[in-house]
Amino acid sequence: MQNTEKNIIVFDVETKKTFDEVGGRDHFDKLGISYVGVYSYAQQKMFGFFEKDLPVLEKILLAERPLLIGFNSLHFDVPVMQPYFSKLNLSLLPHLDILKEIEKTLGHRLKLDSVAQATIFSGKSGDGLDAIRWYREGDLESLAKYCLEDVRITRDVYEFGLRQGKLYYHSGGEKVPIDISWAKQPTILAQLQEAFKKHQQLDIEYFEVDENNHAEIVPRRIEILNMENERSFEAYCYKKNNKTKFLVSKVWKIEETGNTFAHQESLF
Boundaries of each YprB ribonuclease H-like domain copy (predicted)? Predict the structure, then answer.
């Protein structure tokens, strides 16, 4: 399989031990893998691999040679996984480490939870120490669920950046944008601007967020009345039957309906 848009795997690794238990951060090979979570774009589903199943994962990666996507994956996940793979050099596969891209832009690192909360309004359910505890307690169901949830979050952060051309994090009470390198053109902002110029009706998926920062992605059919700036726009919303202000950063997806409209803002 060629490295196409569908030949992508998002992954996350959980370990059996901490760095303190193996003598420091130079001993990735001693951490041991408890679970690897994977999302395959080719099959559009999640998969999980316990330590005993890693030879199967190696065969898949050898056959497909996908683009690997992770968060802190070049610094952590890859060196932890490599000792398990005798036939595959993971450094030879194409790779997108989201944290590395963030660090290039900001000059410092961020936690996945920080980026996810600000970008897709979804946070992590635990941390690596919880995963180690679940492994040791034999609670493999909780271990797998946690790891696959991290994979989902990483995938959704990647997809947001793909569509929007930026991610976000909170600093000083403000939502701060992070420009990223893997955006697909045209971005959502560019699509909104073009639809406004051409009076195109759109179907969008939009993050509606409550006061507790819990979000739901909802469908909305809209007609853009005013592109106020690059951060917000006003549109007639069919669902609400009124003029509504939308934030560009909360638009998840856009589809053109093929219809145009002739509404004038003065009517509202």
Answer: 33-159
